[in-house]
Design brief:
single chain; alpha/beta; Rossmann fold; 13 strands; about 20% strand; globular
Length: about 230
């Protein structure tokens, strides 16, 4: 498939998947959010010790603000992306309640004047995702461009719902795969070019070392999968 055909195909898939997500009821969205929060919190305890970038939710995306609040209480510094200019890498600025927000493209808020942050890890929303860990975003290329520009790539955790899974997004040379994918089902890790499902921590469980998902956090600190 040539690039123009891929571009047209991606647009149709993006529209289809966004429509499917928008059709989900608030109770379903909240249940998915709680499942994803739990999977990330239990599988990546190291996020509480890092500079974490996340995105303000739009169009029924996973809402990371609840998890960000929990992680900040444990010591994390949280940041939001900022669109500096078209076709340029994103910047990241610290955000927590009390920092003034302005309205950016797609009516997504961003911090006006807080300090710049180089994230150690990023929670990245995905309209769709495939078996190789590649992300279908909104078509602007901002995250791929940003990840390619950073001297030290953060650990990238793509967040979506199972309904967004595709066989392939027909990745191009500039597409950068996620290191992990988390959905309401649980955690996937990218190994040898494909995603491996690690499972989900048991609700209420505290024994991370008893779960294969805990190895995601070991990789996080050792820099594997980057």
């Amino acid at each position: 498939m040539d690039f123009q055909s891929v571009k047209v195909w991606r647009k149709s898939q993006r529209e289809r998947l966004i429509a499917a997500r928008l059709a989900l009821g608030p109770d379903t969205i909240e249940a998915f959010r709680k499942s994803i929060d739990a999977a990330i919190e239990r599988s990546f305890p190291g996020l509480a010790r890092c500079r974490l970038a996340f995105c303000w939710p739009v169009r029924n995306e996973y809402d990371a603000r609840h998890l960000a609040k929990t992680l900040r209480a444990r010591g994390a510094l949280t940041a939001l992306p900022v669109v500096v200019a078209p076709k340029q890498p994103l910047a990241f600025r610290e955000w927590h309640p009390g920092i003034e927000l302005a309205m950016g493209p797609l009516d997504i808020p961003y911090p006006k004047d807080s300090q710049s942050v180089t994230p150690d890890a990023a929670l990245v929303p995905m309209n769709g995702w495939d078996a190789g860990g590649y992300r279908l975003g909104y078509g602007g290329g901002f995250f791929d461009r940003t990840l390619a520009s950073l001297a030290k790539k953060p650990v990238v955790i793509g967040v979506s719902y199972e309904l967004g899974r595709l066989e392939t997004i027909h990745p191009q040379s500039w597409d950068i795969p996620m290191d992990y994918v988390v959905t309401e089902r649980g955690v996937y890790r990218r190994d040898e070019g494909g995603l491996v499902f690690l499972g989900a921590p048991e609700p209420g469980g505290s024994g991370l070392m008893a779960s294969p998902v805990c190895y995601a956090d070991e990789d996080f600190f050792r820099g594997k999968g980057r």
